[in-house]
Amino acid sequence: MADVTPIPALRDNYIWLITGEDDRCVVVDPGDAAPVLEELRQRGLRLDAILVTHHHPDHQGGVDALLAQAQVPVYGPADENIPYRTNPLSEGDTVSLGAVGLELGVLETPGHTAGHISYYGNGLLFCGDTLFAGGCGRLFEGTPEQMIQSLGKLAELPGDTVFYAGHEYTEANLRFASQVEPDNEALQERLEKVRAMRARGEYTLPGTLEEELRTNPFLRSGMEGVKQSAERHAGKKLSSPVEVFAAVRAWKDAS
């Protein structure tokens, strides 16, 4: 049975460490090699594979230093420039990680970047910077249409799916979400819980898709309350969920 734990890195990144029943492991989005190597040393683990979701340096900047210690396969999106990638991946591909007992399917989830991918299997979702707890990634290369389609693809997965995002942004995301949906009781309860967790220095990830569907405004563009808030802020009528999503994303970017 695979076990997933966070390795905090850089300012607010999470590198996800997947372990199985022996001393082999897999890491997801290693933006910095140093904390990974230290974790492996302390736990007596051997690196077996590296998964990358997109090309931003804070998600793959440590790959070369890790490969200097262990020559392992590097999986990443086929449509992005991932240095040292050995296994390019596209929608529908499968990654078999026998070392940790996982088989993960590949989902193309563009929006944050043009070729971003996510990995899903065994009830686990590694979504990089597409979906955050309470939010989603900025649209650096993609369009609102692409991102809302990518988020919709993730939202169709089972509600009990546990997702592992790339950053500890949860409290700030939920503070913004409470502006969009001030009357959402589930959201307000979640925000108070997260504030207490962060005050204790606890991680707020992973989370479940079910909770995101109740509290994440970027997955709720079709909800009337989100639409009304977005229209008030934009000062105009919005005719589709894509327009609502784009307005909420622009609101968040400016906040």
3D architecture notes:
The protein is of the alpha/beta class and 255 residues long. The protein has a single domain (3-254), classed as Ribonuclease Z/Hydroxyacylglutathione hydrolase-like (Metallo-beta-lactamase, Chain A), CATH 3.60.15.10. It is 36% helix and 25% strand. The protein contains nine helices and 14 strands. The strands form three sheets. The protein has a six-stranded mixed β-sheet, with helices on one face. Strands 7-8-9-10-13-14 form a six-stranded mixed β-sheet. α1 packs parallel to α3 (63-69). The longest helix is centred in the C-terminal third of the chain and has 15 residues, at 185-199. It starts with a strand and ends with a helix. The mean pLDDT is 97.
Structural key phrases:
about 35% helix; globular; about 260 residues; alpha/beta; Metallo-beta-lactamase, Chain A; about 25% strand
Secondary-structure map with pairings?
Blueprint: E1 3-9, E2 13-19, E3 24-28, H1 33-43, E4 46-51, H2 57-60, H3 63-69, E5 74-77, E6 87-89, E7 94-97, E8 102-108, E9 117-121, E10 124-128, E11 131-132, E12 135-136, H4 144-155, E13 162-165, H5 170-180, H6 185-199, E14 207-208, H7 209-215, H8 224-234, H9 241-254
Parallel strand pairs: 3-4, 4-5, 5-6, 10-13
Antiparallel strand pairs: 1-2, 2-3, 7-8, 8-9, 9-10, 11-12, 13-14
Helix pairs in contact: 1-3, 5-6, 8-9
> What's the rounded overall pLDDT mean?
97
Beta strand count: 14
User: So what's the overall shape?
Assistant: globular
The helix/strand order is EEEHEHHEEEEEEEEHEHHEHHH
Distance between the termini: 41 Å
Query: What fraction, in percent, of the residue positions are helical?
Result: 25-40%
CATH topology, anyone? Metallo-beta-lactamase, Chain A
The order of strands across the largest sheet is: 1-2-3-4-5-6
Helix/strand/pairing class, anyone? Answer: alpha/beta
User: In CATH, what is the class?
Assistant: Alpha Beta
Strand content: 15-25%
Oligomerization category of the chains in this entry = single chain
What composes the largest sheet?
6 strands, mixed
Radius of gyration based on Cα positions: 18 Å
